[in-house]
Design a protein that fits this description.
about 325 residues; Rossmann fold; 9 strands; globular; binds ligand FSX; binds FE3-S4 cluster
Length: about 325
């Protein structure tokens, strides 16, 4: 694409969503902060999204978003990132070529757009997968246009440069894989053994963590640093409990005893009500959800551990205690 048309495309994408240059730069600064990068990287993120200089002649990176067995919460969360208009404009600009919930096309038109994007960007596109893959009985529990989600996932992953398992369902199987798992739901990695997959768990995951991971990939052409579970360290490096504002109450045993009691009104620790923040790695305390409005514990509800493997089976019933750790 020529330099001038690249500039026009991003201007149009921003204009259509009422996004100013100032909004965009603020968004890039926020992404740098989310990623734990020094402020100077905001310019690099802006450059990578706009593709200036020598990169102006390159194609816009294509993103394909596949929804399997899930509730669309990951998409909702993304749409409620801290600055959704800018995030959406950036996605428009970097070419979100297939997303059944967000795209205007449906049915055969959507499938045609997906096929065209896969062919034109073979080996180069980013694949974001939301939802677990039902593998029992040949994959018949999730069919799209006559094709099983299992087949579609394999087909779409084969040409992807970078695969993101978005949400706890895609990362670990999630709700559909909880006992007794009637559809044989699995994490996507189990049917893509040859692909390196970045996990962004959470039910739903944090919108800014999704965008931050994409922004990092655009700048550095590789995924951010990952932990042993292939989760970005910038978001999953610490336990919720370590950064919780109620931690000081935990340390002196100032606890809520029941919902609505005097401890709750003083925002004491929710551990006796089943808080799983000690066992859960995520950045909710810092990044938060719903346009940075709040997060579970901030709203007075115990952390349910939604970003951990098997949390539906192992962390339930929700309002029951788990063994206490030191610290
Ligand atoms: Fe829902 Fe996504 Fe949970 Fe799963 O988020 S919020 S059930 S992680 O795949 O849509
Ligand atoms: Fe920790 Fe949850 Fe209390 S995160 S500080 S146990 S409210």
């Amino acid at each position: 694409m020529e330099a001038e048309s690249v500039e026009k495309t991003i201007d149009l994408a921003f204009h259509a969503r009422g996004v100013t240059r100032r909004d965009f730069m603020k968004f890039c600064s926020c992404m740098a902060a989310v990623l734990g990068l020094p402020p100077v990287f905001a310019t690099q993120i802006a450059d990578a999204i706009e593709m200036p200089g020598s990169l102006k002649s390159s194609r816009r990176p294509s993103v394909l978003w596949l929804q399997l067995q899930e509730c669309a919460g990951c998409t909702e969360s993304f749409a409620r990132a801290s600055n959704p208009s800018v995030a959406q404009a950036v996605l428009d600009h970097i070419s979100l070529d297939y997303h059944e919930t967000l795209m205007a096309a449906a049915g055969s038109q959507a499938r045609a757009a997906r096929k065209a994007a896969m062919q034109e960007n073979a080996g180069q596109y980013v694949l974001i997968v939301e939802g677990s893959v039902p593998a029992s009985d040949g994959g018949i529990y999730c069919m799209m246009g006559g094709q099983s989600g299992l087949d579609l996932l394999r087909e779409m992953a084969s040409g992807a440069a970078f695969v993101i398992a978005l949400g706890t369902c895609a990362s670990y199987g999630g709700l559909a894989a909880a006992r007794p798992n009637p559809t044989g739901a699995q994490e996507i990695g189990s049917v893509l053994p040859d692909k390196r997959i970045v996990r962004i768990p959470g039910c739903p995951p944090l919108g800014d963590v999704i965008m931050g991971t994409l922004a990092y990939y655009l700048v550095f052409k590789k995924p951010p640093a990952l932990d042993e579970e292939q989760r970005p360290l910038f978001a999953y490096g610490k336990f919720v409990h370590e950064q919780c504002r109620r931690h000081s109450h935990y340390e002196v045993a100032e606890m809520c005893g029941s919902f609505g009691d005097s401890g709750c009104s003083k925002a004491y620790c929710l551990f006796p009500l089943g808080c799983k923040g000690q066992f859960t790695r995520n950045a909710c305390t810092v990044i938060r959800s719903n346009m940075s409005a709040s997060w579970c514990v901030g709203s007075g509800h115990p952390c349910v551990g939604c970003s951990e493997r098997n949390f539906w089976d192992e962390f339930t019933p929700i309002y029951t205690l788990r063994e206490r750790r030191d610290g």
